Amino acid sequence: MTQSVSLFIGGEFCQSETSDWIDVTNPASNDIIATLPCATEDEMERAIDSALQQFKLWKEVAVSDRARLMLRYQHLLKEHHDELAELLSKETGKTTVDAKGDVWRGIEVVEQAANIASNMMGETVENVATDIDTYSLIQPLGVCCGITPFNFPAMIPLWMFPIAIAAGNTFVLKPSEQVPLTAMRLAELFEQAGAPKGVLQIVHGGKTQVDYLLSHPTIKAISFVGSVPVAKYIYQTGTSHNKRVQAFAGAKNHMVVMPDANKAQVISNLVGASVGAAGQRCMAISAAVFVGESKQWIDELATEMAKVKPGVWNDQAAGYGPLISQQAKARVIGLIDEGKAQGAKCQLDGSQCSVEGYPDGNWLAPTLFSGVTTDMSIYQQEIFGPVLVCLEVDTLEKAIELINNNPYGNGTSIFTASGAAARKYQHEIQVGQVGVNVPIPVPLPFFSFTGWRASFYGDLHAYGKQAVRFYTETKTVTARWFEDDIPSGPNMTIQLR
C-alpha cells in the first residue's frame, strides 16, 4: 500500500485534509512509493502560528539547554545513521556510499550546533565614555523557514534547522516534494531527542506553499537551496516582504589541471567529482580546464570514466544511482544532443544507458566532451548530470580568466605540484570555495559554505559562524550607572533567590 506522507504541526504528525496530492517516485524504477500532500492554507497557518507561540517560550530557554538538545539529537542521528542512509537511498536513488555521506555531513552540522553558546557571545567595551559601558547581545529572530532541494535530503535540512533552533528560533521546513521521507524521519528523531512541541514544523507542497511562506509576515528569515531561477525568485520575493534571505543557487565548477600535476590523482579525482551522485550536486566538477600539455590526459580520462557504471542503491558495484526524475534525464540528454550539434567532441556518450532489472529507471552513463568552447550550451548551463566538459588553454592566467568570466562562483579546484601556482590561483580566482589538490572543496561546518556571484543570493552563508549571524540579530546596549545612587547604610540588605 502506498504511504501517505504526514505533516508535522505543533509536535504532532497529522494527515492533511488537502485534495491536492503529488506522487513520490523511486528514481530507479519510477514506481510510486508515497503520496505527498500540498498543505492547505489553514494547515500552513497552523504550522506558522504554532512556531510563533513556541518561539515565545523557546527563546527564553537557557542556551546550554538548547545545546544539550543538539547533543542528544546528534547521538540519535549517529545511532540511526545506516537506517537514514537506506531510506534516503530508496527515495533519491543514491548509492549506499553516497547516502551515508549525505547523512554524515548533516550530522557534522548538528555537532556544530551543539557548540552554539560560544557562537552566541557578544562583545563588550568598558568605559566607551566616562562611566559608560557598551555591549552587544546576540538574540534570535523568531520563526525561520527552510526550503530544501531533492539532492541532499538529510544534509541540507540539517544545515538549516539545527543551527536556527539552537540559536533560539523556531523553524518551518518545506522539503522537496520529490524526497520528503528523509525529512520526516529527521523530525521523528528530533522529537525523540526531546525537542519541545512546535519548535520544528514540516509542511509539504509546491510553489503555492512556498509563496505562502515567502509572504507571511510571521516568517523572519528564509533559507533556500536550488536552481538559479528559483533562487533568484526566492530572494527577490522574500526580501520584498522584508525578510532575511539566503538563497544558494546553481554552479559550473571548474577543475584546473596543470601539466605538473600528478596524473593518476587528477584522473581519479576528476572521475569521482564529475559523476559521483550522478553529477546531481552543486559542488560537482562539471568543467575541466586542461592547461598546456595536460590536455594529453583527456583520452585516459575517458577510459577511466567509462569504467564507472550506474546502478541501484544496494548494488556495491554501482558508481552512482539514477537521475531524480524522467524530466531531469530528458533535460540532460537534450543538452548532450546540443553539445554534439554545436561541434563538441563527445568522447563518451552515456545517453543510451540501461540497468538490468530496472528498465524504467532514470539512468545515464558517464558522458565526456572535449573541444568545448565557452559559447556552447553544455558549458554555459548547469547540466546537473554525470557529464564532464573539457576545455583547453595555454596558461594558468588564461584558465583564471576563463573561470572568472563564468557567471557562477560556487566551487573550484586546481591540481598542481607548484605552491606558487596554487597561491596565485586561490588569490586571483573569483570563486567562494577553492580546493588545492582537492576536487570538491566543501568546508567542514566550523567554517561556512561560501558560494559567490550567481551561485548565491544574500549576504550570510550556510552553517559555521555566518549561519549563526543569519539566524540572529545583534542588539547593542549602552549603559551608564551613577555612583551617587549606590545604596549605603546599616539597613542595606542583599536578598538571594
TrEMBL record:
It comes from the Bacteria. Residues 16-477 form the Aldehyde dehydrogenase domain. InterPro entries: Ald_DH/histidinol_DH (IPR016161), Ald_DH_C (IPR016163), Ald_DH_CS_CYS (IPR016160), Ald_DH_N (IPR016162), Aldehyde_DH_dom (IPR015590), MeMal-semiAld_DH (IPR010061). Gene3D superfamilies: Aldehyde Dehydrogenase, Chain A, domain 1, Aldehyde Dehydrogenase, Chain A, domain 2. Its EC number is 1.2.1.27. Pfam families: Aldedh. One of its GO terms (biological process) is thymine catabolic process. Belongs to the aldehyde dehydrogenase family. Keywords: NAD, Oxidoreductase. This is methylmalonate-semialdehyde dehydrogenase (CoA acylating). It comes from Vibrio brasiliensis LMG 20546. GO terms for molecular function: methylmalonate-semialdehyde dehydrogenase (acylating, NAD) activity.
